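An instance follows:
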Amino acid sequence: MRQGCNEFNRGVISRRALISLGGVGLGGLSLDRVLQASDTNASSLRPKAKNIIFLHQYGGPSHIDTFDMKPHAPTGIRGEFNPIDSSLPGVPVCEHLPRWGQQLHKWAQIRSVHHDMKNHNSACYYSLTGKRPPTDDIRLRDTMELYPAYGSSAAKFLSTSEGVPPFIAFPHVLRDGAISPGQHASFLGKRYDPFFFDSDPNSKDFGLPELELPSSISLERLGHRRELLRVIDEQLKLAETSSEARGLDEFQQQSLSILSSPNLKKAFDLAKEEDALRDRYGRTTYGQSCLLARRLVEAGARFVNVYFSRGIGGKGSEGWDTHQDNFKDLKERLLPMTDCTVPTLIDDLDARGLLDDTLVLWMGEFGRGPQIGDRDGKGRGHWPHCYTVMMAGGGTRGGAIFGKSDERGAYPAASPVGPEDVSATLFWALGIEPNKEVRDTQGRPLPIASGAPIESIFG
Protein backbone atom coordinates (compact mmCIF):
# COMPACT_ATOMS: atom_id res chain seq x y z
CA MET A 1 0.00 0.00 0.00
CA ARG A 2 1.23 3.47 -0.82
CA GLN A 3 2.51 5.43 2.13
CA GLY A 4 3.14 8.77 0.41
CA CYS A 5 5.59 11.51 1.40
CA ASN A 6 8.71 9.39 0.92
CA GLU A 7 10.25 12.20 -1.06
CA PHE A 8 10.13 14.42 2.03
CA ASN A 9 12.02 12.07 4.33
CA ARG A 10 15.48 12.90 2.97
CA GLY A 11 17.80 15.86 2.88
CA VAL A 12 18.60 18.96 4.88
CA ILE A 13 16.89 22.34 4.70
CA SER A 14 18.89 25.45 3.81
CA ARG A 15 18.72 28.41 6.17
CA ARG A 16 16.70 31.37 4.94
CA ALA A 17 18.52 34.62 5.50
CA LEU A 18 15.35 36.62 5.89
CA ILE A 19 11.74 35.76 6.58
CA SER A 20 8.78 37.97 7.27
CA LEU A 21 6.38 36.71 9.91
CA GLY A 22 3.06 38.46 10.28
CA GLY A 23 4.58 41.61 8.82
CA VAL A 24 7.48 41.66 11.29
CA GLY A 25 10.92 41.18 9.78
CA LEU A 26 13.00 38.65 11.70
CA GLY A 27 16.14 38.63 9.62
CA GLY A 28 19.21 38.24 11.82
CA LEU A 29 17.34 37.78 15.09
CA SER A 30 18.92 35.26 17.46
CA LEU A 31 16.88 32.63 19.26
CA ASP A 32 17.31 34.49 22.55
CA ARG A 33 15.77 37.62 21.04
CA VAL A 34 12.90 35.63 19.55
CA LEU A 35 12.26 34.11 22.98
CA GLN A 36 12.44 37.49 24.65
CA ALA A 37 10.08 39.07 22.14
CA SER A 38 7.64 36.21 22.44
CA ASP A 39 7.39 36.28 26.22
CA THR A 40 6.36 39.93 26.49
CA ASN A 41 3.71 42.36 25.28
CA ALA A 42 0.59 40.20 25.30
CA SER A 43 -1.59 40.83 22.29
CA SER A 44 -4.55 43.15 22.70
CA LEU A 45 -6.25 41.55 19.70
CA ARG A 46 -8.97 38.98 20.15
CA PRO A 47 -8.16 35.73 18.35
CA LYS A 48 -10.33 34.65 15.45
CA ALA A 49 -10.42 30.86 15.75
CA LYS A 50 -13.76 29.32 14.85
CA ASN A 51 -12.67 25.69 14.99
CA ILE A 52 -10.01 23.56 16.63
CA ILE A 53 -8.31 20.41 15.35
CA PHE A 54 -6.65 18.72 18.32
CA LEU A 55 -3.96 16.25 17.24
CA HIS A 56 -3.38 14.35 20.47
CA GLN A 57 -0.10 12.37 20.43
CA TYR A 58 -0.82 9.70 23.01
CA GLY A 59 2.23 8.38 24.84
CA GLY A 60 4.18 11.63 24.96
CA PRO A 61 6.45 12.86 22.14
CA SER A 62 10.09 13.55 23.00
CA HIS A 63 10.51 17.34 22.93
CA ILE A 64 14.31 16.93 23.01
CA ASP A 65 14.26 14.81 19.85
CA THR A 66 11.87 17.06 17.88
CA PHE A 67 11.54 20.82 18.45
CA ASP A 68 13.52 21.64 21.60
CA MET A 69 16.79 19.88 20.84
CA LYS A 70 19.81 20.17 23.11
CA PRO A 71 22.82 19.62 20.79
CA HIS A 72 25.30 20.93 23.40
CA ALA A 73 24.06 18.71 26.22
CA PRO A 74 26.03 15.58 27.24
CA THR A 75 25.78 12.49 25.04
CA GLY A 76 23.37 10.74 27.39
CA ILE A 77 20.89 13.57 27.01
CA ARG A 78 21.16 15.11 23.54
CA GLY A 79 20.45 11.87 21.70
CA GLU A 80 21.35 10.51 18.28
CA PHE A 81 19.66 13.06 16.04
CA ASN A 82 21.16 16.22 14.56
CA PRO A 83 19.44 19.61 14.37
CA ILE A 84 18.87 21.18 10.94
CA ASP A 85 17.98 24.71 9.95
CA SER A 86 14.31 25.62 9.74
CA SER A 87 12.41 28.51 8.18
CA LEU A 88 13.01 30.41 11.45
CA PRO A 89 16.59 31.72 11.65
CA GLY A 90 18.35 30.31 14.69
CA VAL A 91 15.52 27.88 15.51
CA PRO A 92 16.51 24.36 14.40
CA VAL A 93 14.41 21.21 14.27
CA CYS A 94 15.22 17.51 14.21
CA GLU A 95 16.79 16.25 10.98
CA HIS A 96 13.88 13.82 10.60
CA LEU A 97 11.33 16.65 10.44
CA PRO A 98 12.51 18.48 7.29
CA ARG A 99 9.04 19.34 5.94
CA TRP A 100 7.81 20.62 9.29
CA GLY A 101 11.03 22.61 9.50
CA GLN A 102 10.21 24.28 6.18
CA GLN A 103 6.95 25.63 7.61
CA LEU A 104 8.04 26.29 11.20
CA HIS A 105 7.32 29.98 10.61
CA LYS A 106 3.62 29.10 10.63
CA TRP A 107 3.77 27.57 14.12
CA ALA A 108 3.79 28.93 17.65
CA GLN A 109 5.71 26.91 20.23
CA ILE A 110 5.13 26.73 23.97
CA ARG A 111 8.31 25.21 25.41
CA SER A 112 7.65 25.41 29.14
CA VAL A 113 4.53 23.31 29.75
CA HIS A 114 4.82 21.22 32.89
CA HIS A 115 2.86 19.25 35.49
CA ASP A 116 3.48 16.34 37.88
CA MET A 117 1.35 13.48 36.52
CA LYS A 118 3.63 10.60 35.46
CA ASN A 119 1.02 7.98 34.50
CA HIS A 120 -0.73 7.94 31.13
CA ASN A 121 -4.33 7.89 32.35
CA SER A 122 -3.95 10.76 34.79
CA ALA A 123 -1.71 12.82 32.47
CA CYS A 124 -4.02 12.11 29.55
CA TYR A 125 -7.02 13.36 31.50
CA TYR A 126 -5.03 16.51 32.33
CA SER A 127 -4.18 17.08 28.66
CA LEU A 128 -7.76 16.52 27.45
CA THR A 129 -9.51 18.70 30.04
CA GLY A 130 -6.98 21.12 31.50
CA LYS A 131 -8.00 19.98 34.99
CA ARG A 132 -5.60 18.39 37.45
CA PRO A 133 -6.76 14.86 38.29
CA PRO A 134 -7.38 13.94 41.93
CA THR A 135 -4.63 11.32 41.85
CA ASP A 136 -1.69 10.21 39.70
CA ASP A 137 -2.80 6.61 39.38
CA ILE A 138 -2.85 4.29 36.38
CA ARG A 139 -6.20 3.04 37.71
CA LEU A 140 -7.85 6.46 37.39
CA ARG A 141 -11.35 5.93 35.99
CA ASP A 142 -13.94 8.17 34.42
CA THR A 143 -16.55 9.43 36.87
CA MET A 144 -19.21 12.12 36.73
CA GLU A 145 -17.08 14.17 39.12
CA LEU A 146 -14.27 14.55 36.58
CA TYR A 147 -14.29 17.35 34.02
CA PRO A 148 -15.53 17.13 30.43
CA ALA A 149 -13.32 17.10 27.34
CA TYR A 150 -12.40 20.44 25.76
CA GLY A 151 -14.64 19.69 22.80
CA SER A 152 -17.65 19.04 25.04
CA SER A 153 -17.26 22.39 26.79
CA ALA A 154 -16.76 24.13 23.44
CA ALA A 155 -19.89 22.43 22.06
CA LYS A 156 -21.92 23.82 24.94
CA PHE A 157 -21.04 27.43 24.22
CA LEU A 158 -20.50 27.56 20.44
CA SER A 159 -23.08 27.72 17.69
CA THR A 160 -23.50 24.56 15.64
CA SER A 161 -24.20 23.57 12.04
CA GLU A 162 -27.36 21.65 11.24
CA GLY A 163 -26.66 17.98 10.82
CA VAL A 164 -22.99 18.13 11.89
CA PRO A 165 -21.98 17.29 15.48
CA PRO A 166 -19.99 20.13 17.02
CA PHE A 167 -17.51 17.72 18.65
CA ILE A 168 -16.13 14.72 16.76
CA ALA A 169 -13.39 12.32 17.93
CA PHE A 170 -11.66 9.37 16.26
CA PRO A 171 -10.17 6.82 15.45
CA HIS A 172 -9.09 5.31 18.80
CA VAL A 173 -10.12 5.24 22.43
CA LEU A 174 -7.18 6.35 24.56
CA ARG A 175 -6.36 3.82 27.24
CA ASP A 176 -3.56 2.46 29.38
CA GLY A 177 -5.24 -0.69 30.60
CA ALA A 178 -8.32 1.26 31.67
CA ILE A 179 -9.86 3.89 29.39
CA SER A 180 -8.32 7.28 30.06
CA PRO A 181 -10.89 9.72 31.46
CA GLY A 182 -11.58 13.08 29.86
CA GLN A 183 -12.79 11.85 26.47
CA HIS A 184 -16.49 12.55 27.05
CA ALA A 185 -18.89 15.23 28.27
CA SER A 186 -19.07 13.97 31.87
CA PHE A 187 -21.46 16.12 33.94
CA LEU A 188 -22.35 18.33 30.96
CA GLY A 189 -24.60 15.52 29.73
CA LYS A 190 -24.81 13.20 26.75
CA ARG A 191 -25.86 16.01 24.45
CA TYR A 192 -22.24 17.22 24.50
CA ASP A 193 -20.56 13.86 24.10
CA PRO A 194 -18.36 13.58 21.02
CA PHE A 195 -19.58 11.89 17.90
CA PHE A 196 -17.02 9.08 18.17
CA PHE A 197 -16.06 6.30 15.76
CA ASP A 198 -13.17 3.86 15.61
CA SER A 199 -13.26 2.97 11.91
CA ASP A 200 -9.98 3.35 10.01
CA PRO A 201 -10.17 6.21 7.46
CA ASN A 202 -7.33 4.51 5.56
CA SER A 203 -9.39 1.39 4.98
CA LYS A 204 -10.64 0.75 1.44
CA ASP A 205 -14.16 0.21 2.73
CA PHE A 206 -14.13 3.11 5.19
CA GLY A 207 -17.56 4.46 5.93
CA LEU A 208 -20.11 4.77 8.71
CA PRO A 209 -23.17 2.60 8.06
CA GLU A 210 -24.95 4.35 10.89
CA LEU A 211 -25.15 7.47 8.72
CA GLU A 212 -27.22 5.59 6.14
CA LEU A 213 -31.01 5.54 6.34
CA PRO A 214 -32.68 2.16 5.80
CA SER A 215 -34.04 1.89 2.27
CA SER A 216 -37.56 1.70 3.68
CA ILE A 217 -37.32 5.15 5.31
CA SER A 218 -37.27 8.33 3.24
CA LEU A 219 -36.18 11.76 4.47
CA GLU A 220 -39.83 12.81 4.49
CA ARG A 221 -40.78 9.85 6.62
CA LEU A 222 -37.86 10.57 8.94
CA GLY A 223 -39.14 14.11 9.35
CA HIS A 224 -42.59 12.83 10.30
CA ARG A 225 -41.04 10.39 12.77
CA ARG A 226 -38.97 13.19 14.32
CA GLU A 227 -42.09 15.32 14.79
CA LEU A 228 -43.97 12.37 16.28
CA LEU A 229 -41.21 11.79 18.81
CA ARG A 230 -41.34 15.46 19.79
CA VAL A 231 -45.09 15.31 20.40
CA ILE A 232 -44.77 12.11 22.44
CA ASP A 233 -41.96 13.59 24.51
CA GLU A 234 -44.05 16.66 25.25
CA GLN A 235 -46.99 14.55 26.28
CA LEU A 236 -44.80 12.52 28.62
CA LYS A 237 -43.18 15.72 29.89
CA LEU A 238 -39.82 14.09 29.32
CA ALA A 239 -37.97 17.34 29.77
CA GLU A 240 -39.16 17.56 33.35
CA THR A 241 -38.21 14.07 34.49
CA SER A 242 -34.46 14.33 34.88
CA SER A 243 -31.31 15.86 33.46
CA GLU A 244 -30.29 12.41 32.17
CA ALA A 245 -33.56 12.06 30.30
CA ARG A 246 -33.14 15.52 28.82
CA GLY A 247 -29.66 14.55 27.70
CA LEU A 248 -30.92 11.39 26.03
CA ASP A 249 -33.70 13.33 24.29
CA GLU A 250 -31.26 15.95 23.01
CA PHE A 251 -28.87 13.24 21.86
CA GLN A 252 -31.73 11.53 20.01
CA GLN A 253 -32.70 14.80 18.32
CA GLN A 254 -29.09 15.35 17.28
CA SER A 255 -28.97 11.84 15.81
CA LEU A 256 -32.10 12.48 13.77
CA SER A 257 -30.66 15.79 12.57
CA ILE A 258 -27.51 14.01 11.40
CA LEU A 259 -29.51 11.38 9.53
CA SER A 260 -31.63 14.00 7.79
CA SER A 261 -28.67 16.12 6.66
CA PRO A 262 -26.22 15.16 3.88
CA ASN A 263 -23.34 17.31 5.21
CA LEU A 264 -21.73 14.79 7.54
CA LYS A 265 -22.16 11.92 5.12
CA LYS A 266 -20.44 13.94 2.40
CA ALA A 267 -17.55 14.81 4.71
CA PHE A 268 -16.88 11.13 5.34
CA ASP A 269 -16.62 10.36 1.64
CA LEU A 270 -12.83 10.53 1.32
CA ALA A 271 -13.06 9.07 -2.18
CA LYS A 272 -14.08 12.55 -3.33
CA GLU A 273 -10.53 13.77 -2.64
CA GLU A 274 -7.90 13.57 -5.36
CA ASP A 275 -5.52 10.66 -5.02
CA ALA A 276 -2.55 13.03 -5.16
CA LEU A 277 -3.74 14.93 -2.08
CA ARG A 278 -4.48 11.71 -0.21
CA ASP A 279 -0.94 10.56 -1.04
CA ARG A 280 0.50 13.80 0.33
CA TYR A 281 -1.30 13.27 3.63
CA GLY A 282 0.08 9.73 3.68
CA ARG A 283 -1.80 6.48 3.15
CA THR A 284 -1.84 5.71 6.86
CA THR A 285 -4.52 5.78 9.52
CA TYR A 286 -3.03 9.01 10.84
CA GLY A 287 -2.69 10.64 7.44
CA GLN A 288 -6.24 9.93 6.33
CA SER A 289 -7.58 10.84 9.79
CA CYS A 290 -6.04 14.30 9.49
CA LEU A 291 -7.48 14.69 5.99
CA LEU A 292 -10.87 13.73 7.38
CA ALA A 293 -10.44 16.30 10.17
CA ARG A 294 -10.04 19.01 7.55
CA ARG A 295 -13.18 17.82 5.75
CA LEU A 296 -15.15 17.79 9.02
CA VAL A 297 -14.12 21.35 9.82
CA GLU A 298 -15.22 22.37 6.32
CA ALA A 299 -18.57 20.69 6.95
CA GLY A 300 -19.13 22.66 10.16
CA ALA A 301 -17.61 20.69 13.05
CA ARG A 302 -16.25 23.04 15.72
CA PHE A 303 -13.88 20.75 17.63
CA VAL A 304 -12.22 17.65 16.14
CA ASN A 305 -9.98 15.31 18.13
CA VAL A 306 -7.66 13.04 16.14
CA TYR A 307 -6.01 10.51 18.44
CA PHE A 308 -2.59 9.15 17.46
CA SER A 309 -2.52 6.08 19.63
CA ARG A 310 -2.07 2.37 19.99
CA GLY A 311 -1.55 0.47 16.76
CA ILE A 312 -1.22 3.43 14.40
CA GLY A 313 1.72 2.73 12.15
CA GLY A 314 1.37 -1.02 12.51
CA LYS A 315 4.32 -1.68 14.80
CA GLY A 316 6.45 -0.34 17.60
CA SER A 317 5.38 0.91 21.00
CA GLU A 318 1.98 2.33 21.82
CA GLY A 319 1.78 5.71 20.16
CA TRP A 320 4.70 7.86 21.31
CA ASP A 321 5.49 5.85 24.43
CA THR A 322 9.13 5.24 23.51
CA HIS A 323 10.44 3.50 26.65
CA GLN A 324 12.60 1.32 24.44
CA ASP A 325 14.29 1.87 21.08
CA ASN A 326 13.40 5.55 21.27
CA PHE A 327 15.60 6.62 18.36
CA LYS A 328 14.81 3.67 16.09
CA ASP A 329 11.08 4.08 16.62
CA LEU A 330 11.25 7.82 16.06
CA LYS A 331 13.44 7.56 12.96
CA GLU A 332 11.62 4.69 11.25
CA ARG A 333 8.00 5.20 12.27
CA LEU A 334 6.91 8.22 14.24
CA LEU A 335 8.81 11.14 12.74
CA PRO A 336 8.45 10.22 9.04
CA MET A 337 4.71 9.76 9.46
CA THR A 338 4.39 13.00 11.39
CA ASP A 339 6.53 14.94 8.92
CA CYS A 340 4.40 13.65 6.08
CA THR A 341 0.98 14.34 7.56
CA VAL A 342 1.05 17.41 9.80
CA PRO A 343 2.68 19.86 7.35
CA THR A 344 0.28 18.67 4.65
CA LEU A 345 -2.68 19.43 6.92
CA ILE A 346 -1.39 22.97 7.52
CA ASP A 347 -0.70 23.59 3.82
CA ASP A 348 -4.11 22.19 2.87
CA LEU A 349 -5.96 24.33 5.41
CA ASP A 350 -3.99 27.37 4.27
CA ALA A 351 -4.65 26.75 0.57
CA ARG A 352 -8.40 26.51 1.26
CA GLY A 353 -8.54 29.68 3.34
CA LEU A 354 -9.30 27.71 6.50
CA LEU A 355 -6.11 28.18 8.51
CA ASP A 356 -6.97 31.66 9.79
CA ASP A 357 -10.16 30.27 11.31
CA THR A 358 -8.83 26.88 12.43
CA LEU A 359 -6.48 26.41 15.36
CA VAL A 360 -4.38 23.25 15.07
CA LEU A 361 -3.04 21.92 18.37
CA TRP A 362 -0.30 19.25 18.42
CA MET A 363 0.70 17.83 21.81
CA GLY A 364 0.85 14.76 24.02
CA GLU A 365 0.10 14.26 27.69
CA PHE A 366 3.77 14.86 28.59
CA GLY A 367 7.27 14.73 27.10
CA ARG A 368 10.11 12.23 27.45
CA GLY A 369 12.89 12.21 30.01
CA PRO A 370 16.17 13.97 29.26
CA GLN A 371 18.26 11.04 30.44
CA ILE A 372 18.56 8.24 27.88
CA GLY A 373 18.53 4.69 29.20
CA ASP A 374 14.98 3.76 30.14
CA ARG A 375 14.23 0.02 30.10
CA ASP A 376 16.42 -1.26 27.23
CA GLY A 377 19.11 1.38 27.67
CA LYS A 378 17.94 3.20 24.54
CA GLY A 379 14.61 4.63 25.61
CA ARG A 380 13.30 7.75 27.28
CA GLY A 381 10.81 7.57 30.14
CA HIS A 382 7.73 9.65 30.95
CA TRP A 383 8.55 13.30 31.66
CA PRO A 384 5.79 15.75 32.66
CA HIS A 385 8.18 18.30 34.16
CA CYS A 386 8.82 20.15 30.88
CA TYR A 387 7.61 19.60 27.32
CA THR A 388 6.59 21.42 24.15
CA VAL A 389 3.13 22.20 22.76
CA MET A 390 2.70 23.31 19.14
CA MET A 391 -0.08 25.52 17.74
CA ALA A 392 -0.77 26.88 14.26
CA GLY A 393 -3.54 28.93 12.66
CA GLY A 394 -6.57 30.34 14.42
CA GLY A 395 -4.96 33.72 15.00
CA THR A 396 -1.66 32.43 16.41
CA ARG A 397 1.46 34.45 15.63
CA GLY A 398 3.56 32.26 13.38
CA GLY A 399 7.11 31.87 14.67
CA ALA A 400 6.26 32.84 18.25
CA ILE A 401 8.12 30.94 20.96
CA PHE A 402 6.82 31.16 24.51
CA GLY A 403 8.81 29.96 27.48
CA LYS A 404 12.11 28.16 27.60
CA SER A 405 13.46 24.89 28.97
CA ASP A 406 16.76 24.57 30.81
CA GLU A 407 19.97 23.36 29.16
CA ARG A 408 18.97 19.71 29.63
CA GLY A 409 15.32 20.07 28.62
CA ALA A 410 14.36 18.93 32.09
CA TYR A 411 12.55 21.89 33.65
CA PRO A 412 11.20 25.29 32.57
CA ALA A 413 13.83 28.02 32.65
CA ALA A 414 11.41 30.83 31.77
CA SER A 415 7.65 31.42 31.82
CA PRO A 416 6.40 28.05 33.12
CA VAL A 417 2.80 27.18 32.26
CA GLY A 418 0.54 24.22 32.97
CA PRO A 419 -2.24 22.35 31.17
CA GLU A 420 -4.63 24.81 32.83
CA ASP A 421 -3.08 27.62 30.80
CA VAL A 422 -3.21 25.61 27.57
CA SER A 423 -6.90 25.00 28.32
CA ALA A 424 -7.60 28.69 28.93
CA THR A 425 -5.75 29.52 25.71
CA LEU A 426 -7.95 27.21 23.65
CA PHE A 427 -11.20 28.62 25.00
CA TRP A 428 -9.95 32.19 24.75
CA ALA A 429 -8.94 31.57 21.13
CA LEU A 430 -12.49 30.40 20.40
CA GLY A 431 -13.94 33.54 21.96
CA ILE A 432 -15.15 31.71 25.08
CA GLU A 433 -14.17 33.36 28.35
CA PRO A 434 -12.07 30.83 30.33
CA ASN A 435 -13.95 31.69 33.51
CA LYS A 436 -17.27 30.79 31.91
CA GLU A 437 -19.15 28.63 34.36
CA VAL A 438 -20.72 25.20 34.03
CA ARG A 439 -22.51 23.25 36.73
CA ASP A 440 -21.58 19.80 37.96
CA THR A 441 -23.91 17.04 39.11
CA GLN A 442 -24.36 18.81 42.45
CA GLY A 443 -25.28 22.09 40.79
CA ARG A 444 -22.04 23.77 41.81
CA PRO A 445 -20.76 26.49 39.44
CA LEU A 446 -17.31 25.67 38.05
CA PRO A 447 -15.14 27.60 35.56
CA ILE A 448 -14.37 25.70 32.36
CA ALA A 449 -10.70 26.67 32.72
CA SER A 450 -8.69 27.73 35.75
CA GLY A 451 -5.55 28.98 34.00
CA ALA A 452 -4.64 32.12 32.07
CA PRO A 453 -4.54 32.33 28.26
CA ILE A 454 -1.10 32.64 26.68
CA GLU A 455 -2.06 35.74 24.71
CA SER A 456 1.42 36.64 23.48
CA ILE A 457 1.44 33.83 20.91
CA PHE A 458 -1.53 35.46 19.17
CA GLY A 459 -1.88 38.65 17.21
